[in-house]
Amino acid sequence: MRMIESILADAAAIAALRRDIHAHPELCFEENRTSDLIARTLEGWGIPVHRGLGKTGVVASSATGTRRGPSGCAPTSTRCP
User: Fold this and answer.
1) Helix axes 11-23, 32-44, angle to 10 degrees
2) Distances, alpha carbon 49 to alpha carbons 5, 22, 27, 61, in Å
3) pLDDT digit string (tens) for 36-50?
4) DSSP alpha helix (H) spans, the chain
5) What pLDDT, on the 0 to 100 scale, is given for residue 74?
6) Region 26-41: what's the mean pLDDT?
7) How far is CA 19 from its chain centroid?
8) Quick one: which of 81, 77, 80, 74 has its CA closest to 34?
9) CB 27: neighbour CB atoms within 10 A?
């Protein structure tokens, strides 16, 4: 399955995840619930994660094989003043 097809197939779950995060705001560098939610979700999708970077950061790797090309980043932290 191509990446865009996979995203579209999970669109409702992704939207629910976004709504959940916005329903439970957290202070800057205290995004423990958000960090855990994102990490558990990614792990549930079979994507390996590394936790605890910069205290609450989550880094996920969606690389497959040795293909080189564009990559993306989806920050999960709330905006800090």
Assistant:
1) 170
2) 22, 22, 22, 7
3) 999 999 898 888 999
4) 3-9, 11-23, 32-44
5) 55
6) 92
7) 14
8) 77
9) 9
DSSP 3-state of 18: helix
The conformation of residue 20, written as its DSSP 8-state character, comes to H
Q: Which of 25, 39, 3, 35 is nearest to 79 (CA)?
A: 25
Both tokens assigned to 16: 């629910």
Residue 66: strand, helix, or coil: coil
Is 73's pLDDT higher than 60? no
Residue 38 has which token pair? 């994102």
- The CA-to-CA distance between both ends of the chain, in Å, stands at 40
| Amino acid 81: pLDDT | 47
- State the average pLDDT over residues 6-25: 90
How many C-beta atoms lie closer than 10 Å to residue 65's C-beta? 5
pLDDT given at position 9: 85
